[in-house]
Input
Amino acid sequence: MYRAKFVRALFPGRFQPPHKGHGHAIKWILEELSDEVIIVIGSAQESHTFQNPMTAGERVYAIKLMLKDMNIDLNRVYIIPVPDIFMNRVWPRFVEVFSPSFDVVVTRNPLVRELFEELGYKVVPQPLVNRDTYVGTKIRRLMVEGGNWEQYLTSSVASYIKEIRLVDRLKLTLGSE
Amino acid sequence: MYRAKFVRALFPGRFQPPHKGHGHAIKWILEELSDEVIIVIGSAQESHTFQNPMTAGERVYAIKLMLKDMNIDLNRVYIIPVPDIFMNRVWPRFVEVFSPSFDVVVTRNPLVRELFEELGYKVVPQPLVNRDTYVGTKIRRLMVEGGNWEQYLTSSVASYIKEIRLVDRLKLTLGSE
Amino acid sequence: MYRAKFVRALFPGRFQPPHKGHGHAIKWILEELSDEVIIVIGSAQESHTFQNPMTAGERVYAIKLMLKDMNIDLNRVYIIPVPDIFMNRVWPRFVEVFSPSFDVVVTRNPLVRELFEELGYKVVPQPLVNRDTYVGTKIRRLMVEGGNWEQYLTSSVASYIKEIRLVDRLKLTLGSE
Amino acid sequence: MYRAKFVRALFPGRFQPPHKGHGHAIKWILEELSDEVIIVIGSAQESHTFQNPMTAGERVYAIKLMLKDMNIDLNRVYIIPVPDIFMNRVWPRFVEVFSPSFDVVVTRNPLVRELFEELGYKVVPQPLVNRDTYVGTKIRRLMVEGGNWEQYLTSSVASYIKEIRLVDRLKLTLGSE
Amino acid sequence: MYRAKFVRALFPGRFQPPHKGHGHAIKWILEELSDEVIIVIGSAQESHTFQNPMTAGERVYAIKLMLKDMNIDLNRVYIIPVPDIFMNRVWPRFVEVFSPSFDVVVTRNPLVRELFEELGYKVVPQPLVNRDTYVGTKIRRLMVEGGNWEQYLTSSVASYIKEIRLVDRLKLTLGSE
Amino acid sequence: MYRAKFVRALFPGRFQPPHKGHGHAIKWILEELSDEVIIVIGSAQESHTFQNPMTAGERVYAIKLMLKDMNIDLNRVYIIPVPDIFMNRVWPRFVEVFSPSFDVVVTRNPLVRELFEELGYKVVPQPLVNRDTYVGTKIRRLMVEGGNWEQYLTSSVASYIKEIRLVDRLKLTLGSE
Output
């Protein structure tokens, strides 16, 4: 794809865990949309809950593994953890603080789209790729239920998830108030 | 250097701005100490003050420029912004949350050394390279006084500093209460 | 109503959105209870959620519109946004910090009554006026379901709600995790 | 029980309210496990909610009453309130800041066990004593439903609960959004 | 002054205390610049320090007294307390959350100007009126030194300052660490 | 001393470190003023700075050692760490949350006296005992300068300070920005 001007895209998510859907989106961004992509890991302070079992650092590492598995050029990627600020309208400005400047935001989340548009950003949705299957909540549920969650992750990420025994950790979060 | 086991080092700093002293340290780490290095950008929520003029995102970007200028392999480097937590004893654990796992910490700051040692980490100092000159506070002072600050930065970082007009910003911070 | 001594009342709420029930209460306060009223807008940091769709600033503005629609004397009213502090027992003291001094609190919320009474305040309930219909949650639900929400707001507030396209924003909050 | 070395145990909980189950656990700790016990009162900033009706200070006081009722030596006990930090992985380190040093953690909560084990602590479960009945949530439910909650508390604690009219407070929390 | 379009101005400050210099600026804004003015009281969470002796609520009240003393139309004025967020770049967005929408910012503070300009706002300075004398820090110093601070305040504000015994409070702040 | 009614006193401080001056005050309180005393350890989140070198937990422990050295009855004492809230006017209410109820506050700090009096508490000063010498700042300075700091502490506290190598830690804090 030809671009007259250098373009950098922002791709926010929680990445619990990083799955092939994320990988396809990043690939599409770098092929069709922009020269570089900033992967923003939201709720970075969270871990050891069902919604957010992995620490931000584990997610940084797993995303890098996935990018390697999918032959994505790491030199074109930033991976930036950002903690929650609990103020929706302020949040995109807060993301700006942690991130190199960007020209476009990639998301299918309607609230995230609205919030970045309010700050003046162009927002585009990533293409739909098996939306049903590539959903973090569904993958985490498969993990606790003993389903085949590995199919939604690249092989190195699946191995890493096993190495850190994330499935056990996820089950722990169900037992606590 | 031969290492029997994969090693990852953590190199924390504020990088206001990232200077050649930082670059030499990172080079030394990757040559002599570890396979990968995690550059932790502290006080990530701060900007537009004399102590912390650049945003975390600007520091992420400038560090990447510096690494390229110095031909350091980006694939071996993580750059992670971490906000302040204002609790010294808890801080190294907080850094762990944002960071892939690491084996050794590189710092010459005696308090940082103490805090990571208390959490059980091995800490080593980077070699001294013109310690007098490679100091962030001194470089920022040269900026507001019209001195030759460019010499302490790699060329792309110096250009970027000019592009974002950091010297003007730094002067603004002096006029405010 | 004759009062030997100047009296100022505090009227706390979230005002999502400000409706005629709020307006009637304020009118009653200024006619029967006190010389001035402080309208405290709680959860001021929140916006773009189903519980709290409007920003505090939008609520400040809409309350002023409602007061004008109902011919309430603005000179006798303070409108003060107060963010959450997430500590129930401390909250009334926190409200005191943001507010001119007051003599009485007006609320029908049993927990709010308890918390201000614990700090030594006299608390009185506003009269019940169509309690069923004047409830923020119900009005917001009508908004997303296409019901006749306008009837519960004064005309300028209803126009403003349309101008800022709050109904669209409210629908966005349903689609996000 | 003979111990070659002085041992101090940490016993974390929310103590809403402190019940005989807690008392039996503390007794067992001091008889079988350690020389001293640190009772950590979690969620210390919370009060006046159904999950956390009592303030931390009220819990400190009620625990002391219970220890006296059960003839437990106060000289071997620390009672330390600790507010929430909302970062699971960091939390045990945060507890360390508020607490004298300890050698072992006593808990049956699987997440708490995991979090302290990650920081390197030995964790042991207290013996099960009528687990069904000694559960804070169940006792609070009995309070609002008019059941016989007193049987689960020592007599001084039950009297104190009445003195501060906690049952009324608990009911208030049900009526608020 | 004729304006084709309705204009609202934002006038931020700490107002410790509100003095005639503030009053002149507000008068000028309403005569020359805008239809309405939003007075933003910064550092609203602070009080009982030398830099910020008055609570936000006391400042709200004193500003209203000053506006009345100077015959400024209260219907054209909003007074909004805003706590600190301790992130310079995010701060103007945070102010937006608490405030009705505005078109222009009035300030002589170079950092405040920069921060609002970065968010896209037009910023204009208020005219200089005895800049030397109308400075909060100087007035507070006169208070503790027994100087003639009253001359810089309108009469009702000076009376109110005496009523709340602010000079005594200011002296207390000097004696504490 | 005869008291018709049970009295509990609050004694707030930072206890960096706990010295004989604190011990004499506590003794006086229990002999002359009240039946029980609550020792509130302020700035509990802080450690490893020159102003606050010890963690709250270390201070809890050292205070208990001091009380034993001075034969003070531990059954009459509560030791409660309280983190900073950074809002002066709210702070005494925040202390109330963490503490059993109390009737009187003991302090010579004029700001602390004012803040508790504003909340309606009676405040009394402890007697002056060698005020010059029993000052935390002075003792910490002696520590870094190699002076005779031990004389101001009871013997067990002095031993504990040596055991945790606090003097080394204090020196570290001087070398960091």
